[in-house]
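Final report, Chapter 2: Outcomes

The project's central promise was a pipeline that accepts a single protein chain and returns its three-dimensional structure in a standardized token representation, suitable for archiving and comparison. That pipeline is now operational. To close this chapter, we reproduce one record exactly as it appears in the project archive, with the input sequence first and the structure output second.
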Amino acid sequence: MDRRIPVDDRTGRRTVPETARRADRPADRPHRASGNRYGSRPTMKDVAARAGVGLKTVSRVVNGEPGVTPDTERRVQDAIAALGFRRNDSARVLRKGRTASVGLVLEDLADPFYGPLSRAVEEVARAHGALLINGSSAEDPEREQELALALCARRVDGLVVIPAGDDHRYLEPEIKAGVATVFVDRPAGSIEADVVLSDNFGGARDGVAHLIAHGHRRIGFIGDMPRIHTAAERLRGYRAAMEDAGIPVEDSWMSLGVTDPGRVRRAAETMLSGPDPVTAVFTGNNRVTVTVIRVLAEQTRRVALVGFDDFELADLLQPGVTVVAQDAAALGRTAAERLFRQLDGTLLAPERIELPTRLVTRGSGELPPSD
């Protein structure tokens, strides 16, 4: 009988010879094979050796090709499961010239508006067997360009871009090289490309006209930065509605800038103070609306409100918030469908698609003037 006696090493600790440790290891305890380091993945050669078949047979099973008997396919699948093998798509990319992946460049991942838009793009991509990779530009044109080109460097087949900048000539070489590209929510700058938009001008005009129809004449507008297409179009819609009603607009009734709550709060408080304060406010997006609601809650008089963009719990406030709703999911879905039509070669000249908005009345936009 071979009895192993623990011995002291140079540190004074009691140790057991390695041969004993190996012998004592349970037979079914998993351990890494010699030379199989982390990051080293099993190959088709490993699968073939375990299943006792040739590489061509493994390739046929992995790629769903015919010519393999059920018994052989079962052995190969068992080997794949045992080894944790995953197909390496890099070789398929080289053969087919497609990566089955598309990129999405968003403005702000934290903005709830982009959640349904991103999900819709992902669902269309999934239906076409493609993976979606997305990132945020944080409204920074340089970051947008960096992200878009990084996605192209990773050989995505196409891009859906919500632009932060107004010059997209940097994408011309990529588009010429075959990268399908669709812009959404805002148009591309300095290039011709497919774009899917909401009717920002018409929606804003309808929202302000609704306030006018309920007796308001002093109507404030608080929006995003004027260089942003959506903000500029919504301001244009506000002006058009006021002009249609023959109401001169005072400069103090309009404020555009960052959507930072502090800036929006100051703008709202200024409009709501003085000898002739506004009796209604039209807000340019959901983030602005939320801040303005907080300001209005502190007022002693009731002020009417219509916001562009719907938002969660808008219907549960008292009164409910009247909004101009745009369909973010439809924007994403339409853009993604055009992207894959480009990839299929069924689209020719770039188009501009404008989706309608919808006025949702809930109470805040129907309040009459308080004076």
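Archive annotation: Confidence is low (pLDDT under 50) at residues 1-36.
This record, like all others produced under the grant, will remain available to the consortium after the project formally closes.
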